[in-house]
Here is the input.
Amino acid sequence: MLSERDAVVLLRDTFGPAVISDHEFRGDVTVFVHRTRIIDVLTFLRDDKRLLFDMLIDLTAVDYLHYEPETKAERFEVVYHLRSMATGARIRVKAPVPEDDCQVPSAVALYKIADWLEREVWDMMGIVFTGHPHLSRILMYEEFVGHPLRKDYPYNKEQPQYTIRERSTDRQPVWVR
Amino acid sequence: MIDQSVDTQQKTISIQMGPSHPAMHGCVRLDCELDGEEIVATDVTIGYLHRAFEKMAERNTYNKVIPYTDRLNYVSPLINNVGYVMAVEKLLGVEVPPRCQYIRVIVSEISRVCDHLTCLGAGAMELAAFTVFLYAIEARDMLWEMIEYICGARLTTTYTRVGGLTHDLPPEFENQMRQFFPKIRELVKDIRWLLEKNRIFTDRLRGIGIVSSETLISYGVTGPVARAAGIKYDVRKTHPYLVYDQLEFDVPIGEHGDNLDRFLVRVEEIEQSLRIVEQAFAKLPDGAVSIDDPRIFLPAKEKVYNTIEGMVHHFKLIIDGPKTPPGEVYFPVEGANGELGFYIVSDGAGKPYRCRVRAPCFPALSALPEMIRGHMIADVIATFGMLNIILGELDR
Here is the structure.
């Protein structure tokens, strides 16, 4: 059975420079990956017979605005928590995202839950997932201005008042067929 | 004269359930596209109960976040309390004393029973079995009374602290709890009989809401819903935390993955949780219920008022919070509905830099459109009820 550390070695062998760094803290293994290769890495982690990280436990993002530029080169990091149903191994994959080009390829084709989770990250952090079929707000309402979990969004900021939507301008439903 | 221009070819109609609907357990909106009475597509709108847990957690010291966790899954708040503080303890790298671990197991399992009873009772009530609801609420109220006996509140418990518990169990707690066990078992047996032999109820659950286990994994669904489909995953068994590896219990697994299996898995889990509580009482060791480290856990009141060190520690903990090492941790516990995880990023301060909840309801609800596709509109109620969507943790 391959451990999380072996998974990191395997990733380094397969993807080379796309794997930026890795570290272990309190037993949690984290791998930093270039966002351009993130889908390849996630596909490899999911489909490789030795790894089989087939469950996307969580997808979120962290805004490192208050960190020194020496510790965090980019402002955002998108965080993928993966778990293998076969081995029980867990791994955390992080993809740094710069502030001026806030986008990451979407993982909707790999994990169905990525649909909602990516919508939430876009809603809360303003990170665009390219290739997502219908990236719309999920927890906030359509007229909400800004992205509330960004560190520069004040906790007590007030939102502009908006008029009640007409039925005709109502949000188009996202039919899941 | 019949107007020939009217389009009679339109095949589907769309109806809206919620946001304020008796069977929506709070506020969720389902827009269903119907072909006759059959659902062909669904759009789910969530967020009506969003209270910015993650944003507020960033403003408060680690201990001050605990009351917010009560409001996540408000039917089993103690599991949230335990899960959150254990994530912080993992970040700090501390382990709580054995007595505290056992008590955390006891309160978690009591909460799990409450959650399952709520799900069964409310789910049955929505399918017109109102008597069962009263039976389930009677059993749940006994347990909530016991939780009130522990911490003075039925729902807003805030019982745990980083590094321990607010206080020990009350002295008569174990005896009172033991008196309730036969009553709860009797009520659960009644619930089981009332529903399992109820043709209307079982017919409305059997064969409804099935999706393949691959789809469930792709959706990240965990907990009773996944186990009903045969996925052998329970955080208490696969990643044992607290003292779950020293306690004997079975994890019920379903075969078909339909609503009836979800119902049966939950009924069986109630019995297993009661078993765990009984064993934990038998093994409950003596000793402290919190770590003795004034940098993490508040010192005793006598020390605060009578010694200068105690005063300083108290002040520093309340104002600044415990000093944490910079880093990030993810800690999962088995919530009543599945894997409840807390992801905490620390920059070394006494407040979480980022605190993220992995709520088990979120994946379950996102899989709902696939579960009800092709079924009748009335099956939405049964499926929604058996997923046990708790809006507090869904919208956070």
Notes: Chain A has a mean pLDDT of 85. Residues 4-130 of chain A form a domain with the Beta Polymerase; domain 2 fold (CATH 3.30.460.80). The CA atoms of residues 104 and 129 of chain A lie 5 Å apart. Chain A has one domain: 4-130.
